[in-house]
Design goal:
The protein has helices at about 1-5, 10-15, 20-40, 55-65, 70, 80-85, 90-115, 120-135, 140-170, 175-205, 205-210, 215-230, 250-280, 285-310, 320-335, 345-355, 355-365, 370-405, 405-425. The protein is mostly helical and about 425 residues long. The two termini are about 30 Å apart.
């Protein structure tokens, strides 16, 4: 006890000109002591935490590759699905809206599940749910397809929230690098879902076999995850003096992070759902419009591998967030003023701008001090964020129907992109919830 009271950090002893207040000194001392204690208890020895390593990194990558094909594989096969099921346009609208709503609902439940069973078991359970949903939705008619999609996206929603916690706890010195790898794998899986589903339909003899085949990838990720997370126990008890019970709903920073995540997801959902039609109406062929949408996803892969590790090592991620946003704003202006002038250029700029998704995930991990806080912040940001995002495609299409052109819709999307830059800049500053 006496040694702790007498301890004064070197940078405090040597500064005579501007000595910190007692409160500042106490906070600094608390942080240093907290950090030293955490170094004495490695992540691999704390119950409920998955130890970092090569196998776990592979498991994270394989898991990430399963978080989009369940959704992106539907679009290219939607016409065949409707024809085979005799489904209406309303059914198709419900099918494409389900993921966003499910991401919101199940995402809010993820922190509770991880506290109850531990992070390793919670993700394993989510992968089981995803695999079961992918199989279920190809077994019968319209309502079974909807139900299976709901189950599959519930599993995806749980993993969406929990993987940032694994990265925070198991790779604390490589948060940016692992977040970049995770995001790149996620984007790559999404691109594979849309690109490979039509060839799989031809090779396997129908849309049911094509959609169901993605369950094999999910089952493989489950096996690797079970091997990587062996030995993890029940979640740790909150330490004395922690703020585990404090509601993040009262944290301004938590709401800033949530709005940043929600606004960039709003833009992504609109682009995935409506950009091909915007290009088609501007004179681009249907095939080229689909390729341009795929290009937007592919551009995000190398950027996600490079920028998050660099940004995470810096005190603030705000310049990177705002910088990427500038490319998105330029793309929106081009689409508003002259959508048919250079669709390739607008797509490249938009792909760079939408790569901010990787920094949105990085910010979630960096704005929390502990894995438990990361889980709660991730659940809040993705739960409420995806709820906001689900409004995007509906509002975008409604404005088009009301005005008869895409201009007003694109102007609204430009405003949303500027708001994303503002909240992203605020979320990127070095603070903690």
């Amino acid at each position: 006890m006496y040694a702790i009271v007498a301890y004064v950090p070197a940078d405090f002893r040597d500064s005579a000109a501007a000595r910190p207040s007692a409160a500042t000194y106490a906070e600094r001392l608390e942080l240093e002591l907290e950090g030293s204690l955490e170094e004495e208890v490695p992540a691999r020895r704390r119950p409920g935490v998955v130890a970092g390593g090569a196998l776990l990194a592979v498991a994270v990558v394989l898991t990430a590759m399963n978080l989009r094909p369940a959704i992106t594989s539907i679009g290219p096969l939607l016409a065949e699905m409707r024809e085979g099921l005799g489904a209406s346009a309303l059914w198709a609208s419900v099918l494409t809206t389900l993921p966003g709503l499910c991401f919101a609902g199940a995402g809010l439940a993820a922190p509770m599940l991880s506290r109850r069973f531990g992070i390793g078991r919670a993700i394993a359970f989510a992968l089981v749910v995803l695999t079961a949903g992918l199989v279920l939705r190809v077994l019968d008619g319209q309502f079974v397809v909807l139900g299976g999609t709901l189950v599959a996206t519930a599993g995806i929603a749980l993993v969406n929230v929990l993987i940032p916690v694994v990265i925070k706890d198991s790779f604390p010195a490589r948060v940016g690098l692992m977040t970049g790898i995770y995001t790149a794998a996620l984007q790559g899986g999404g691109a594979a879902g849309s690109a490979l589903s039509p060839p799989l339909e031809s090779a396997l003899g129908g849309w049911r076999a094509s959609l169901g085949s993605w369950a094999v990838l999910a089952a493989g990720a489950l096996v690797v995850w079970l091997l990587a997370s062996r030995g993890t126990g029940r979640p740790p008890r909150p330490a004395a003096g922690t703020t585990a019970g404090r509601s993040l709903l009262r944290s301004p920073l938590a709401w800033i992070v949530t709005l940043f995540f929600g606004l960039q997801s709003f833009i992504a959902y609109v682009v995935m759902g409506w950009l091909p039609q915007v290009f088609i109406d501007a004179g681009v062929s249907k095939a080229d419009a689909g390729l341009l949408l795929g290009l937007i996803s592919v551009i995000a892969v190398p950027i996600s591998l490079v920028i998050p590790p660099i940004a995470a090592r810096q005190g603030s991620q705000s310049p990177w967030i705002v910088g990427l946003g500038v490319f998105g704003v330029a793309a929106m202006l081009g689409l508003i003023i002259a959508p048919g002038f250079s669709p390739l250029l607008w797509s490249i700029l938009l792909g760079i701008g939408m790569s901010v998704f990787s920094l949105a995930l990085t910010v979630i991990a960096l704005r929390a001090r502990t894995g438990a806080e990361t889980a709660r912040l991730s659940g809040m940001a993705q739960g409420f964020g995806y709820l906001l995002a689900a409004v995007g495609p509906f509002a975008f299409g409604l404005l088009h129907d009301a005005t008869g052109s895409w201009s007003v819709s694109l102007i609204v999307l430009l405003v949303v992109m500027v708001a994303q830059m503002i909240f992203g800049g605020l979320a990127g500053r070095r603070r903690f919830v």
